[in-house]
Amino acid sequence: MVAALEPVVAKQPVKTPDDGTLVLPKEAAQTLGSFSAEDVLLFKTEQGILVTTREMLLDWALDGIGVAMRESGETLEELIESGREIREELIAERYAARSSR
Question: Helical H runs in 13-53?
Answer without folding.
Answer: 26-31
